[in-house]
Every structure is written in C-alpha cells, then in structure tokens.
Specification:
32% of the residues lie in helices and 23% in strands. The chain is an alpha/beta fold and 309 residues long. The protein contains ten helices and 13 strands. The strands form three sheets. It has a five-stranded mixed β-sheet, sandwiched between helices. The longest helix is centred in the C-terminal third of the chain and has 18 residues. α9 runs parallel beside α10. The structure holds the ligand NCc1[nH]cc(CCC(=O)O)c1CC(=O)O. Ligand PBG binds next to β8 and α7. It catalyses: 4 porphobilinogen + H2O = hydroxymethylbilane + 4 NH4(+). This is Porphobilinogen deaminase. It comes from Limnohabitans lacus. Pathway: Porphyrin-containing compound metabolism; protoporphyrin-IX biosynthesis; coproporphyrinogen-III from 5-aminolevulinate: step 2/4.
Length: 309
Amino acid sequence: MTSHLIIATRESRLALWQANHVKHLLEMQGHTVSLLGMTTQGDQILDQPLSKVGGKGLFIKELEVALADGSAHIAVHSLKDVPMDLPEGYQLACILEREDPRDAWVSPHFESLAHLPEGAVVGTSSLRRTVLLQALRPDLKIEPLRGNLDTRLRKLDEGQYAGIVLASAGLKRLGLKDRIRHAFALDTMTPAAGQGAIGIEICADRQDLHRILSSLNHLPTAVQVYAERGVSRTMGGSCSMPLAAHATLASGQLSIHATWGDPQLKNTPLIHARAQCTLDTSAPDALSQATDLGKRVAQQLISQGALAH
Ligand SMILES: NCc1[nH]cc(CCC(=O)O)c1CC(=O)O
C-alpha cells in the first residue's frame, strides 16, 4: 500500500538536501511525499557554541512537535545531531547508508595542518574538533565558528580563519567536494558518533510508518552507528563533551575506536580505547550487540580516567 507522507525538515541547504533525498527514496517505492520546512532554535541561536545553549535537542524539538500534532509524519535528521535518548514517544525508524564519515580540512591557502604557520587561527565550535586539533598542533588558535555550511564557508572566505574543519559528508552532499583539501585520518581526527549518517524519526506508535521506512534501513551503517552511539550514551555524551567514536564493519567484525578529551580543554592527553567483536548483522539483536560494544569501549575510556556525565 502506498501513502502520502509529509517530511518535517530544517531549512538549511544540507537539511533540505537530506529531506529531498529521503523524498526521492520514498517516491521510488510509490509513495507521494511533500516537505514541511521549519526553523528550529538551533538555527536561530548562532552567536554561541551549541555546548553552551543546550545541545543537540535544539535542532529537532520543533520537528518532533510537528510529528506529534500530525502536521508531519517523519523527520529527517543528520544522525550526529540526534540526542542519544529521544523523548518518550519518539523513535528512530531507520538509518540510511552513510556518506563519508571523515572530517575535512577546508582552507583557501594551506594544503594541510602541517602547512599552517605557528599560531594560525582555525575555526570550529566543536569541542571534539578543538581537542583533536590541539593534540595535533598545540600552537594553533582555535576560534568559534557556527552557522550552516554556507555561512561557515563564507566566514572562511572572508579571511577570518586560516582554515576550518567540516564534515566531509555535508560538503559532498551539497556539491562542495572541491572545497575539501583532504579528509583527515580516522584515527587522529576521529569523527563524532553517527557523523555522515541520516536518521529518520517517527512517533513510536506509528507501526505503519515503521514498516514503510524499514525498507530504507541500511543495516551495516545501522550497526556501526549504534556502536558509536553506545559510546556516547554510556559517557552521557553531548556537545559539551569532547568525544569521538568511529566504528567499521568488515568480514563480520565490528571494530570501534573512541577518543575522549578533557572538556575544560586543559592540556591533558587524549584518552583512546578500541574494541571489536564478531557480529552477524542478520541476528535479531544485532543493534543491541553493537550498542553493547560501544558501551564496552566507553567503560575502557572511563577506566583510563575519562569522566562520564
Ligand atoms: N553539527 C552540524 C552538522 N550536523 C551534520 C553535519 C554534517 C553532515 C553529517 O555529519 O551527516 C554538520 C556540519 C558539520 O559538522 O560540519
């Protein structure tokens, strides 16, 4: 049976690209789909880092209200912006195949971090990117940079920064791949949990929508990002914790690497942990096995001195 589906989305160019991508996938299955564009608090408060104004939930609350009052059926999110625990009554119905999860170095004049002069200014408001950059180049001056991708690129082009760090996935989706000087190595600029993946949220009581969306679920991506999110959940991670987690799945082995940095940005060394397990993605409990692996890696971080919230 086909349905008419309304997608709630933020109105940044990246959010609209992602919503239109989901629209297209659903239309290929015979559904008719329209978009409901919305502005969220996260889009409006631009003068402060997210870690100060209340974090990830800010980008999705208005969309959840639209789901609850029936003005939309599904909400499309960058998974990275979705809190670990959704409010009561909401669930993630599916995870789409992940784009490049790596962070990208973007700079008009400098090929890489190694080419930056002593004390150069790098733009990012992410605590994770800040501690990872400081570990690579303690001399750099990290300055805040917020706004959607176009805004951040404009600020870079105005000359306020020698370079900035952005998610490769967003740049590629918006046709801005040429702005990427190089993608950072996964083991030194480890991405945020879920980076590059798209998650679709529904009201938990809508089994009909769950069935429709389950056909869009990409299981290998789902187990990887559930493992990554397992780390964040166990650490009580939010944007106020410098936490990185990246999982890979190859030949039935799920491997994860997580990094924790001091949120006070003291020059304490980063804490790393790794773990792996064999995983049959077709097992009914594959996602909870993946989450458990993430939990295990988080406990290793904690046993080495990382502070959970
Ligand atoms: N925090 C904002 C945000 N949320 C998702 C992406 C990029 C796309 C993705 O990770 O899926 C970005 C921009 C960035 O981090 O550069």
